[in-house]
């Protein structure tokens, strides 16, 4: 027969084995490191322009808890108080067949980063082309010129995309692509208006086009903090 003292240890042991429901989830530290210059061949490169600004790119490491996860280029855009977007920098092997490896860099797609969980998501913006598109952000919307490759509606397109949406809010063909002797940049930087919400895009040397963005900003899905 078990003694009362021995029986008292059973519920106490059970309580010690149950994890605390109120334990705070682990918070990660997300930072961008110091920038450095790397070799880069921009789309508008020519043999006559060999300046450092024209042949290099400033990249910064994206760190989660002091561990490097990605290389980035350009400034971040805060979408919410815990999530931001930043453009990824890609290191590309630029050597021809038979040549020794020749590494260069180029701006890549956009990433969304959660400051709490440290989770990094690659964004697949509609018709986004790293060589042509320069996304300008407002809230959780991006406005830019892109390249559509569909047969019926292909070409150079004006795009307004929303994070979390399957289709672009705006996608309108504004010219053929490819173009002989296309200017760089192909489009000037998009301009945003808050009320009413509008985005204005313009081909370089062309006429400005303004698009109304109908509806409220979607709620960007932000998961619970993870270990």
Automatic annotation (TrEMBL):
Keyword field: Signal
Signal sequence extent: 1-23
The organism's taxonomic lineage, starting at the top: Bacteria, Pseudomonadati, Acidobacteriota, Terriglobia, Terriglobales
Residue ranges of the region described as Disordered: 34-54
Protein name: Uncharacterized protein
The species this protein was found in: Granulicella mallensis (strain ATCC BAA-1857 / DSM 23137 / MP5ACTX8)
Keyword Signal: yes
